[in-house]
Structure formats: C-alpha cells, structure tokens
Amino acid sequence: MSGTLTIRRARLVLPDRVVTGDLVVVDGVIEQIGPELARREGEQVDAAGLTVLPGAVDPLVAVPLQGDGEALARETGAAASAGVTSVVAVDLQSRVVDADDVEEALEHAARHARVHLGVLTSVDESRLDALRAPGRAVGLHLPVGRWCGPRPASLAALPAVMAASPRWVVVEGQDPAALPQRELLYQGAHDPTEHSRIYPPELAAAVILAAGRAARTHGQRLHFGRISSAAELAAFAEVASESITGQATVPHLFVRADSAYRRLGTRAVVDPPLRGPGDVAALWEALRDGTLVALGSGHVATPVQGKDLPYPQTLRGMPAMGAMLPLLVDRAARGDVSLTQVASWTADAPARLVGLPRVGRLEVGFDADLLLVDTEADHVVDVASRSWSAWSPFHGFTLRGRPVATYLRGRAVFRDGRLRDGVRGSVLTPARP
C-alpha cells in the first residue's frame, strides 16, 4: 500500500544540489519536484524550515529473521525512526541458506519489518548447489574466518563461491589461517582493550586481497561490507573496480578505539575491531575521494546482556541503524560533510549496489522513501529505549538535527516522535542478478 502527499517549502537534497521547493508524491512515487508547485495531491505537509533527504538504504545489517518477530520489529522500528527506509539483512544465526529459507525469512519480514527488507543468503560450503538458485535473495553473505553465526567460510572456498553465485557477494572477515596463532598468543586475555591487538588490520586485509582476486577471476560482483583501517584500504586499492566495491561503517567512523574501550568496556568489541584516529581519518578521506562508495551502519543486533559478558565471551558487534543518519546530519550541520554527500553515501550509492533502480534519490519516478529532518534542532539520541538490543554506543548523545518524519513509499511510518501503526515495509527484490 502506498501514499499520496504534497510536501511544500522544504529544503530538498537532490543528487547534485540542495534546493527549496515542493515535492508531489502519487501512489508512493515522486511525480513532480519544483519551486512553488500549483499542484496539490493527497496529504499536505508544510515543511518550511525542514530538510528532505532520501531514506537510507543500509546494505548489510545482521538481525533476527526468525522467532516471534518482536526483535525484527523493534530493530527496524528504531531504524525507521531515524530515517532508514531499506535494509539488506543477514540472519544473526546464518540459517538462511537456500531459496526456501529465503522465502521463510521474507514472509517473516513482511509480517514484522517496519522498513523495506531484502535478504542475503549465507554460505554453507557443503552445499554450493544452493548458491546457484538463490530465489529472491538480494545476494550472498560470505563471512570469512569468524562471525557471530555458525558458518564462517575458509579462504580456500572463495574461488568456488565466486564461481557459483549468480548474485552480488558481500564479504567480511579475517584471515582464518592466522586466527589460531593470534588467539594462542593472547591466550588468557580478559581485557577488552586487547581485542584490537589480537586482530590487527592485516588479518582483514588478507581477506580483501584473496576475495578480490577470486572475484576478478570469475567476473563476480563483490562488495566489502566492513572496511575498517588504512591497511584494508591499501589492499582494497589493489582489487577495486566498478564491480568490486567497498563501504565504511558507523562504528569504525564514529567510535575510536583509544577512547571507546574506556567508555564502553566490552560493548566496544566488534569485528573487525575498532581502530585509532589515523584509520578513522583514512576512512573519511576514502569516502570523500570516492574510493569507498557507500556508508552503512554496520548494524549487528547484539542484546545488552550478551555485550556485558566478560571478554572474550562478549558478543561482537554494535547496533547502529538508529544512529547513522542522525550522526551524519549532525556532521553536515557542523560543516564537516555536505548533505548531498550524506544522501549519496547512504541512499543513492547503496541502492545502485543492491540493484534497486528506483530507490535512493529525490527524483521524479523514484519511490518516495523519505526522511524529514529539522537540521536546526538538537536531538538527544534515544535508540536504546526503542530497539530490541536495548543499548547503543550513541545513547544520550546530543546531535544537531531532529528526525521529524519518515515515509515508506509516501506513507508515514514515523511521525511526531512515534511509529505509526499498520505501516510495514515491502520485500526488496534486485532488478538484476
């Protein structure tokens, strides 16, 4: 079900500039954009003083795609309240392997997700046949060496996976051959600050080189979902191409190792680990110069009870969907980035990567997935009370830019500080293999 509305007198973040004008949506699609339009359709929204951004497309999140649905509803609800309108999800337990699993996950999402949702299948090395018939999956998630689910792959599996998969492949991980030696070297470490030392950037860089070379050999579309350091960027530069892409994530851009472990303790433990200020600066520069085309939340739905376990038992990962756009809008308000960059990194580029041809831009003919934000108002981040994870590394932060409303194809899923009953997302199906 789609909505019809007219948004008037807003600052509109177009792909190449910001203008003040009106936007007309009919049956969920943007039909007209221009200054002081005479046309009026459906609900009338006077957005004077507000800014309209395309809703974010988050290309790699880890959430529960099974169970009673409360976890998925709350995680995606927290995302919707902060301007995320589409996510591509991998199941936390990596149990979505074949086309039948995909259908079950999509049915679950249709009942519970508060945003549009697509599914990545997970690799089972004993069942490469399943990769060749992925059903309605957006692509394949390939964790190498270590991940929160039970099926991390080996480097030896990369060529076979790249040859078999007919869809987009999203890779993350650390060199499995080096993991046992590193963990033995730090055996008995119980201080979470050791996490960044146990798993240095070179372990992730090795995966980037191996996966990139295998993808080139087999002509596979490949995306690196969590690039975290200058060393990984150097490896990525050796294999990058139009079809081999990478992204930075919120934890590695906004949470620095030198202060995070002191502030967050075991809650700062993520894979790949948090890095220092030099790596953070390198990631920002890679986004600005186009080396990395996209910025994702890096969201992993990690409940607070699992994060507060002693190291190394603590669950790895951070919930970040509900803070991504507020953090970036705050940066834009302070002059560090532009709103057009924010829209490109979080909406336009990810939509192109995923294969969603009418998503990610304020442009005639595109779906009206929108965020209205007051860029002049302060906003206290309160993701923890909305999400199933029940915590956020950004909880309590005061940011410039208050989310006012989020629309899914012209229907308000969030407005006036609360989620709207009865509004659900749709299934994301890629337009190309």
List keywords for this structure.
single chain; TIM Barrel; 30% helix; Urease, subunit C, domain 1; 2 domains; 8-stranded parallel sheet; alpha/beta; globular
Provide the CATH architecture of the largest domain.
Alpha-Beta Barrel
Inertia-based shape: globular
Question: Rg, please?
Answer: 21 Å
Mean pLDDT level: 94
Distance between the terminal alpha carbons, to the nearest Å?
A: 26 Å
Q: How much strand?
A: 15-25%
CATH topology of the largest domain: TIM Barrel
Q: How much helical structure, as a percent, in the residues?
A: 25-40%
CATH C-level category of the largest domain: Alpha Beta
**CATH superfamily caption of the largest domain:** Metal-dependent hydrolases
Q: Which structural class is indicated by helix and strand composition?
A: alpha/beta
Tally of strands: 17
Number of domains: 2
Note poorly predicted spans: none
The biggest sheet amounts to: 9 strands, mixed
How large is the count of helical segments? 14
